[in-house]
Amino acid sequence: MARVSVEIADHIATVTLTRGDKMNALDPAMIDAIIEAGEGLIDNSDVRVVVLQGEGKAFCAGLDVMSFAAMAGSDPEEIAMPRTHGDSNRFQQVAMVWQKIPVPVIAALKGVAFGGGFQIAMGADIRIAAPDTKMAIMEMKWGLIPDMGGMAILPMLARSDVIRKLTYTATQITAVQAEVWGLVTELADDPEAAAMELAREIAGKSPSAIRTAKRLIGYAEANAGQVADVLLEESREQVTLIGKAHQMEVIAANLQKRPPVFKD
């Protein structure tokens, strides 16, 4: 059965985890389907923003323990160490692929976002969550550490002590607490509707400026503290936008008090 659906309309790609009867738990087929869905959007020039959501009552409950029980007898080095997707292994790519997509990704969270599901959510640019959503770095419950990209992403979002407490204890928190700690962007009673509303707003902005903004933010995060390099990159990226077709259309639309219309 299909594990992920992708629908594209009005320059918005809606990616839905479709294993709702299992709280969208990650079995091997879903791992592969999520990677395929994300990688399939990287070079799609029609897409201006992505909404990532889960079918049914939950976003994602993390790894399907029964599905991965067979891995217990496998060589862990053969599973974890090969870099199968650039700088990531197969499991890390499930979260990291959303950062590699050149347009903003908005995750709509509800029910639970545990373990791998938590790390997938962290891979998005923005997280909108229902207040009662339960979230946890769950791996310590099973005697493991987060290994799906979490340690590459979390230090950019939350304080070290917060990351340590959640990692050491596998404590479940609500989205209300997660927002306080910087892990959730905002709360909404209907996170999927709120995510779509925000997606429409972003889709109406200059496509080239939005892609450039995501690229520049990523560069600044990866080069934190390298002020001269970041300032130079900021100027270099701005040069690619000034006076170009999308920027000129934005200016014209503002002066004429109308929505901009961008030619692909």
TrEMBL record:
Per the UniProt entry, what are the Gene Ontology biological process annotations, in alphabetical order? fatty acid beta-oxidation
* Keyword Cell cycle appears in the UniProt entry: no
Write out the GO MF terms.
isomerase activity
Q: What Pfam families does the entry give?
A: ECH_1
Keywords recorded for this protein, A-Z: Fatty acid metabolism, Isomerase, Lipid metabolism
Q: State the pathway, as annotated in the record.
A: Lipid metabolism; fatty acid beta-oxidation
The record's InterPro entries line, in alphabetical order, gives: ClpP/crotonase-like_dom_sf, Ech1-like, Enoyl-CoA_hydra/iso, Enoyl-CoA_hydra_C
Query: Record keywords: Oxidoreductase included?
Result: no
Q: Which Gene3D superfamilies match?
A: 2-enoyl-CoA Hydratase, Chain A, domain 1, Lyase 2-enoyl-coa Hydratase, Chain A, domain 2
**Leader sequence segment:** none
Identify the SUPFAM superfamilies for this entry.
ClpP/crotonase
Return the similarity comment.
Belongs to the enoyl-CoA hydratase/isomerase family.
NCBIfam families, sorted: PRK07509.1 (NF005699)
- The name this protein carries in UniProt is Enoyl-CoA hydratase/carnithine racemase
Question: Which organism is this protein's natural source?
Answer: Shimia gijangensis
Lineage of source species: Bacteria, Pseudomonadati, Pseudomonadota, Alphaproteobacteria, Rhodobacterales
